[in-house]
Amino acid sequence: MPLLYVVAALISAQAATPTAPAIESALPAAELSVTDAVVLGVVEGVTEFLPISSTGHLIIATHFLGLESERPLVDRKGQPLWYREPSLQYPAGIPLTVKLAADTYNVVIQFGAIAAVALLYWAQLISILRGLLGRDPIGLRLFQHLMIAFVPAAALGFLFHDWIDKHLFSIPAVIAAQVAGAGLMFYAEAWRRRHRSTQSSTAPIELTSRQAAGIGALQCLALWPGTSRSMTTIVGGYFSGLEPRRAAEFSFLLGFVTLSAATVYKSYRSGAAMLQVFGWSHVALGAVVAAITAALSVRFLINWLTRHGLGAFAWYRLGVAALLTALLAGGFLE
Question: Model confidence over 229-241: pLDDT tens digits?
């Protein structure tokens, strides 16, 4: 998921955190309808683990739901609401807007997708926990390889997250990433068919540290919104010799690590501001919807990849890119 650039800020332990004002009342500052919450939850849950880019689809959904307003919000007394109040670092301050809250909302409801993976792959997570306690060498190796795969994108995200946020969160960038990702998927599927894996689909995920690093390097491509974290890590698994089921499962577990870090950090940094805009109830609703749809999507993807591979998703990405290009050319998108 292109949200990886957020994760990297955890490493830096930044001291500068938002100073969102205390919530004065239970009433939200802006309206997020039940329909909006459900739509965003479905989009997050369905696309988070499918190789089609959750961030790209959420950018599109947010646009069509009209959650892109950058008009500064005010409280009931007409006083400005601040994401970051005026200070020496931010002389003019950063006003609270619907767009800022919606961007945070799209990250925070990933709690639902995280819960789905935890439920479906609890045995592997228990194995990792036992490994950390010195009781399961296979679980310990899996944890080590997940960390090796996690670090490259986190490090690059730390260096470039401001630039990515400024230049790559746009519809044209998503179109380019969808097309490029489709090309990579076609190549990876052809490569896999020429190099059939001999690893059993029921055997534990076995990788070398070098292979895990290779998957981590490919995950860096997902810093570009619209590329898809799931796609790059599944493709990386292909190139590492994993058969489709195991490549997808390693991708899900790596996503559990990545999404957990991203969601916790974003909640810490902007959660209070988001709640001040939208309130609690719709955040919880979006997360629950995301959990249900993510669980269904994970099961679907495992079965589909085992039988058909990545090709259909590549064609879907090209279709999305064509539709967005047409809407952009027709002036329906900016």
Answer: 999 999 999 999 9
Alpha carbon distance 95, 14 (integer Å): 21
Q: Which helix (H) or strand (E) holds 95?
A: strand 94-95
- The DSSP H or E segment spanning 103 is helix 98-108
Tokens of 60: 């599109």
Please tell me the distance from the alpha carbon of residue 266 to that of residue 151, in angstroms, as a whole number. Answer: 18
| β partners of residue 153 | none
Distance (Å, whole) CA 40 – CA 90: 31
Cα 168 to its chain centre, rounded Å, is 15
35's tokens: 């329909």
Q: For 192, left (φ over 0), alpha (ψ -120 to 50), or beta? A: alpha
What does the DSSP 8-state code read for residue 109?
A: T
Q: Sketch the domain layout of the chain as residue ranges.
A: 4-329
User: Would you call 122 exposed, middle or buried from its count of C-beta atoms within 10 A (0-12, 13-18, 19+)?
Assistant: exposed
24, two tokens: 């004065």
CA angle 227-230-233, nearest 5°?
100
Average pLDDT over residues 216-241: 94
Helix, strand, coil percentages (3-state) for the chain, rounded to 5, are: 70, 0, 30
pLDDT greater at residue 80 or residue 216: 216
Nearest Cα to Cα of residue 153 among 310, 317, 9: 9
